[in-house]
Amino acid sequence: QGGGTTNGLRILRFAKMSRLVRIIGLLRVFRLARITEDLLDRYISEGVQMIFRIGTIFLAIVWLNHIIGCSWYALGRGFLSSDTGTTWVSSKFDVQDQVVDMSSLSPVYLYVTSLHWAMAQITLGAIELVASNTSERIFNICLLFAGLIFSSTFVSSLSATMISLEMRATDLNRRMRLLRQFLYQERVDASLSLRVRQQVENRLRRQPKISVTDVDV
């Protein structure tokens, strides 16, 4: 009975700590995102903003997988008691006809393996690691459900950003093509034509100022 009480306290402490880490992480992410968005709107063009957003999405994925990987590593190190007497860290695997004990490997390898496992769960991929006890299996199931939502959300967000960037580039190329045709049609000197095209392209790439009529409030 004493062991069951201890396990229950550990599970409760782990849940509280995980919730606190998630809350602090989300607050920092939201604050950083708000500050970054203000800076982008003030000083950076729309095209660069889209590229920056794509990079931000990938950085957020890396950060999320780092948190999940650390949690998986903690479970493997016995942060919670195992009802089967084993964890994924104590498992064994074959390498060139030799049995290797996972627990004998370096912490760096175990962390990279945890990160790989986390990315596989979020992206609904595959990895040779399997859950070895109830706590690990519950954690795995929760991540599989989260992966279903995350994959669709990530793909749609990335697709929308890429399509918007492609549409902007297509519109710019269309305008520049019409300008080149017009300059050629009017027999404009080559050096003057080059300067005109450079000026027009710079102005088109520049983010336009927002007027009062654009603010719909």
From TrEMBL:
Instruction: State if Transmembrane is listed as a keyword.
Output: yes
Q: Which residues cross the membrane?
A: 50-75, 108-131, 138-165
Q: Ribosomal protein: present as a keyword of the record?
A: no
Q: Which SUPFAM superfamilies match?
A: Voltage-gated potassium channels
What keywords appear on the UniProt entry? Membrane, Transmembrane, Transmembrane helix
User: Know the name of this protein?
Assistant: Ion transport domain-containing protein
Q: What organism does this protein naturally occur in?
A: Noctiluca scintillans
Lineage, top ranks: Eukaryota, Sar, Alveolata, Dinophyceae, Noctilucales
